[in-house]
């Protein structure tokens, strides 16, 4: 209990610090809208100019250091076209590069082309008669991408807002009804609280940092601290999902652990371990990529954060598959007369997919192509930002189903496959035939706990 209070106090202090930083962001905003727009334009112009000058310097260094072209036949000389550097190419070929990230409306995933004609000269535009590079594809889908980005932005804000409201209601129920006190509910409380903290920090980050280009360009310490808190709480989300998976797997599969589990290890894993990759990332980022408030994604340092998260998701995937295996095996042996019962339990178990974060294992890589990327972004945003809200709706639907079924039948078999986490605990208790007090329900039976458990 003392450790829980200390962790809660630490998180509240972190949120208070982030709130104060947010107030500072808005307090230091330029009061005049016209002046603010002019300042942002000047800042963006300075950043763009610095990027182009750096690329030009590196290009001239490359031109002088690369070996001389010695192949036979005509070729186009290496050159700097004002934005990109081009190497020697044989006549009659088309050179291709990625679009630069100098401008906000340029998409770095699109292609730039430069044609070397058969005579060994770079292509000249017929209107200007000057050497010309085709950058038209870099911003051809700018309007559509901006529209998609705005849709995803509002989708994230609304989703996190609904999740915060739903989670706070659930936490209020858990804390108000003392009869719900048990280890499983304690894990739910911590998982929900980590979701609330992450949603609050995400909304603050999206509204106060990501939308403030001037702040990102100036790269103050305050926004880096907010990014550190965001990455830490994101890790807490997934490791509390892992804690849920470990506890559920232990409860169902490892029947020998009938005694009370020690939650201290869950606290250390859920709240303590994510500090390690977050701190390592902060140190590495400050040494190698100390720019843009640490929110740019074009660096391999993010694997420091994403690596442990992917490992936790893979472990949860193993737990889920093993739980399904045990359910099928035990229910086949126990309910031979009811062949469809274990299939209901398996379908109910699949509800654990969003709870345990398995969708990130099922869709680990972002596909190539504009349409495929948009579909992927929408699907993942809905799964990420609305999973808490949908889980609460699912819980209320399960409550309605349970009440409806109990009005017609009081059989234990029907109640076994009616809901997710509570139903799985029932199957475990039925299959292994050990006493339900292993979950420390404060004298309450599972029938009393079904209605209120997520």
Would you kindly provide a brief summary of this structure?
This protein is mainly α and 454 residues long.
Give the biggest sheet: 2 strands, antiparallel
Reported CATH architecture of the largest domain:
Up-down Bundle
What would you call the structural class?
Answer: mainly alpha
The total count of strands amounts to: 6
Domain module count: 2
The separation of the N and C termini measures 22 Å
Query: Based on the structure, what is the oligomeric state of the protein chains?
Result: single chain
What would you give as the CATH superfamily of the largest domain?
Rhodopsin 7-helix transmembrane proteins
Strand content: under 5%
Please name the CATH topology of the largest domain. Rhopdopsin 7-helix transmembrane proteins
Helix content: 55-70%
Q: Can you tag this structure with a few keywords?
A:
2 domains; mainly alpha; Hormone receptor fold; 64% helix; single chain; Rhopdopsin 7-helix transmembrane proteins; 454 residues; 16 helices; two-stranded antiparallel ribbon; two-stranded antiparallel sheet; disordered C terminus
